[in-house]
Design brief:
By secondary structure, the protein is an alpha+beta fold. The protein has six helices and nine strands; from the N terminus they run αββαβααββββββαα.
Length: 228
Amino acid sequence: MHLRVLREAGLVAGRAEGTRRLYQLEPDALARLRDYLDWYWTQALETFEQHVKAEGDEPMDPELKVTKSIVVDVPPARAFQLFLDQERWWPVATHHLAEPAGESVVLEPFVGGRWYERSRDRSETDWGRVLVFEPPHRILLSWQVTPDWGYEPDPARASEIEVSFVAENRRRTRIVLEHRHLERYGDQAERMRSIVDRPNEALLRAYRTALTTAKTSRPRRSSIRQAR
């Protein structure tokens, strides 16, 4: 029973040899498992560190956040890569800061990278920065937007968006988008929470549509061999 569970998880491979069935470890799958455990413990330790630092501090406003999730039938690495390529899928016509709406959204894939909107005239409107970059597990962005939809230069007053990519099996990924620290908007916090709730849901739908389109548009291997 245990070997069957490990086989279905892709951690071992089995083959029949006479009346015996032999199993061997799958190194690539174990490497992915190790990466996941590294990510998990990094998350746990960061949470523990925040808790320790908060001990003895003055009481703070409770954290206000919006969390949305979807499941997609691709491995985490592929899901993560498409999320970075926001010029391909971001619905800038409905999710924008520039007026009029820009032409595309650009996310620079490294810590400190810019997150911005690019207009047709090549002007740029900043949205935030990459705070944590851990492919293919998660990315944390500052969302430096004021309640009146201007740019907030002070990161300490900005909310944050964390997107996590959790493998449910070898071919399926749960994507969790958490827009947090909305309490930093003070008396505008609840209004901002209600404003970002539905757009974040629509954002994930647009992402899933783009991912589905990318899957169906990939050429089949047989067609490639015929072309050769």
